[in-house]
# Entry
Amino acid sequence: MSKPLLTHLGAALAGGLIVLLCISDASKHVVHESKDSAQLSSPFRKSTRHPASVAESNHSALFHQGLNEIPGADSLEELLALTGVKLPTRSELDTHLANQGHPAEGYLAAGMILQDPNLMRAAIIREPSNPHILFALASRDDFPDDDRIQWARQLQEAQPDNSLASYLLAALTWEYETKNPALEILGKVDHPKRFQTFTSESLIALTETLGATGNNRAASAYYATLTVDLPHLAPLLTLSRNLQDYAEQASPEEAFIARRRNAGLGSFLVGEDDMLSGLVGLSIQGNAYANLAPDAPLPIEDINPDTLLLSIERRRNEFRELPLPTEALQTSPELIEGYTMRALALGEIEALRWLRSRTSPPAQ
# Structure
């Protein structure tokens, strides 16, 4: 089990773990990732939870220790204390699951809360064709590679119109088998298809489980928005880098297809309703244009490198202007409820825009 990391957006911004895109050489129209972007290849986990193997008696101490190791975590600790969130123990979760009839989604949520792969695997045993569970387990490096590829393939079969399933399967196949099958999988990606990441399903499952184990709904929802895992971002970013490397040594025709698929993946993520996915999407769009020859076809139709850079900068500036929820929400329980309900219904970005409208000083 990897060490739990806090990648909640507020800490990411405060600590510098954010995608920063820069121009390496304006004359070549190249977009590259910075070193900060490379750090995002570590687990995309909005979590400060302890590994499940730790004894329950050490739960609180390790939770606070994890917070103190991360920039900006003091404000999160204070906010959790303010809202009264109490993370359930394994025994409390076992009781909850038994009372609910051992639901598969409940086991997945319990596994996310405790970071326990065994609980997550119990979820897929109960509902082996549940798309949310297939996606959640296939995305995580807690499980053997063969299992992850099998689950991703099942997800693709269950949701052939979900482009994310194909991208995830291609990412895992390229990483753990060979690139040729991965390229064949990507060759079937039809960009007008939908792109479902199941983040909202995870948020709802976490909120309901925390609420059922002694926390009020607003506090549960707020904790869920801060700690929900985004494990799919790491393999997708790795896939993007593989596509970038492949495009730079492939034939012009194959390079164009690889860049086009890379750009499509980035555009899907930019369209997501959370900031971390959006920032990773911007980075992937940059990968699609990296070292692009002046006479090469454009990865995104009618979007030249200069236009892309302007779009990236505009989007980054928009994100910078949004408030940090761990600071803005300390002032009012009503703001917490309003923010979390909007985050669940409309997504993090819309919730932050609403929060900015409620906390920004009036214009002079």
About this structure: Residues 87 and 272 are 28 Å apart (CA to CA). The chain has a mean pLDDT of 79. The longest strand covers residues 21-23.
